[in-house]
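Hi P.,

Sorry for the delay on this. The queue was packed all week, but I finally got your sequence through. Input first:
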Amino acid sequence: MTDNSAKKKPGGLGRGLNALISGSYDRKETPSTPNAVNTIADIALTQIETNPFQPRTHFDQTALEELAESIRVQGIIQPITVRQLSADAYQLISGERRFQAAKLAGLEAIPAYIRKADDQQMLEMALIENIQRENLNAIEIALSYQRLLTECSLKQEELGDRVGKKRTTVTNYLRLLKLPPDIQIGIRDNLISMGHARAIINMEDVEMQLEVYRKIVNEELSVRKVEELVRKINQENKKPDPQTKLNLHPLENEVKRVESRLSTYFGTRIQVKSTAEGKGEIKIPFVSVDDLNRILEILNYA
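Then the structure:
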């Protein structure tokens, strides 16, 4: 019985939402004037064009078909949001998954909240609406943040306020866009997590980043294992500062010459240790009391 009613009223709202909005908005048929804003109306799908500012680049087809099946049974529970371009033309602001699923479900019309918005507002609303959805992958979030910064002329502090995130969180997402394309695709396709990516990005060498990425995928490494691996690789590849190396090189050679001369003089292996600041120590080992007395006699003699 529910199925039949859904088919008779393909764009029907759920009863709960209908009751919720009945006191706030007037539900109308498709408006005949371009000024019918702040209303919810059933709009023909053929009159709605997709959002050119849509930040989502990847829709899971299986999830989309599951949503379409739910719509066939329950109808559209939450209206999409559109702006009116003319008397019979609209553009999506948010709700593209519901829009696409409604098409798959065979609906002819869909409930939509109509509001005014210029291009910049369209972009900002679409981006923020998508960012707030839990199923958006990390790369889509990062790209959305980047577009808000560049195309909406927001600063990172303002962006954090708009999306309800700390600035450090925003920065961590933006850093993902510095990774090679193959790794970004891996994040998008859930082959690796945000935690894996944050560990990889601490490596400067792109080839090494890709090598670690492949190792994560092939061996199913945990984030902690990757952090340890990256730390080890960075330590092994850490190069001394050229200036420091230049300053220490002559001193190291002199220390070795002193060690050699003292070892010959005392007849035992002498160790001389020195720091970059010129401090250090001399170690004179002995193997017995007689050997110690021998060394002391040499010292007294000296």
